[in-house]
Amino acid sequence: MKPMNLPLPKTSHITTHDPYAADRDLPPGRPENTGDYKKALACFGTGVTVITAHHDWQDVGMTCNSFSSVSLNPAMVLWSIRKAASSLIAFTESNGFMVNVLAHDQQALAMQFATGTMTDRFMGVPAERHHSDRLRLAGTVAWFDCDLHQLVDAGDHLIVLGKVRDYGWNDTPALAYSASQFGVFNAVPAA
Fold it and tell me: Cα separation of 89 and 68, whole Å?
């Protein structure tokens, strides 16, 4: 297929006017307003994961909804972590991480790994130590055991890229997160 030669958009004048905003009652916003920016981002539904790693003989884990696939060949995924996170060093200096995709009935687990000490986060959580020495949480929909590939500086976060070395999944419905609420995905009939 021959590439199309499309004219480049003019960037000399930028407008925040959205001709469709009146139809949706959406006011234009600016990223400097972090409260409104977070509300806009919350409109994007995601899955919910718990990322685990093993560093200096200690397990670390955190709830994360920034997980995404990057490449099929080689198999790669990404997620992001705040630079101010207490577990930043453990995640970035370990050799890799385990992505645990939570099932629809694991909302309490998502909340448990969102705050508290590492001891509190893992308390009472059934898990299996993988051959990589990272923990795979029980009852998850899918898991990806990853070698740390690259860290990318991105504002107040680091993007963590991993090469998938092993994975597994089942047909259990996954936990979803949208508009600051947990839920499940419901398919819409084809039009």
Answer: 21
* pTM of the entire predicted model: 0.82
Asked if residues 62 and 109 have their Cβ atoms less than 8 Å apart, the reply is: no
Domains, the chain, in order of start with CATH, read 46-175 (2.30.110.10)
- The candidate with the shortest Cα–Cα distance to 152, out of 60, 70, 81, 72, is 81
State the pLDDT confidence band at 29, using cuts at 50, 70 and 90: low
For residue range 151-185, list pLDDT tens digits in order. Answer: 999 999 999 999 999 999 999 999 999 999 999 99
* CA atoms within 13 A of residue 56's CA, in its CB half-sphere: 7
Report how many helices (DSSP H) and strands (DSSP E) the chain contains, helices first: 5, 12
Strands (E), 28-95: 46-47, 49-55, 58-64, 68-72, 75-82
How far apart CA 183 and CA 42 sit, in angstroms, is 13
Judged by phi (left if over 0) then psi (alpha if -120 to 50, else beta), residue 131 lies in alpha
* Long-range contacts of 18-21, Cβ-Cβ distance < 8 Å, separation of 24 or more: none
